Amino acid sequence: MRRRNVEVDDRTAGMTLEALRCRRLGHSWIDLPIGKARRAELAGRGLSELIVQCERGTLRMIETVDLETWEVVSKRPDGGYPPGYLVPPGSGRLPRAEARKAYMVRRGLV
Q1: Proportion of the chain above pLDDT 70, given as a percent
Q2: Is residue 5 part of a domain?
Q3: Distance CA 75, CA 55 (A)
Q4: Which of 7, 15, 34, 35 falls between 20 and 30 A from 62, CA-CA?
């Protein structure tokens, strides 16, 4: 395969290969259990939680759901985003095509 000169989005420089893989494909999530004590605590406040983890990476998200309206009232990463996952703050959203291009260049596929 002949290599080409491909310009990669600078925002991907600090991202890990694992993060680029997830960002190019979109996440596939695995449901994780919530403990009985936590479920009871939340239910007493009219809430519940959904906890999911990315199948390919280490990102874990927690969604808190209002049991009356079924709206998500909070969505946050459990323990924060892993190092090398985010683009620099204030630089906007990274399009999937840019993640794919950076991934392929880093892997030597182009």
Answers
A1: 96
A2: no
A3: 18
A4: 15
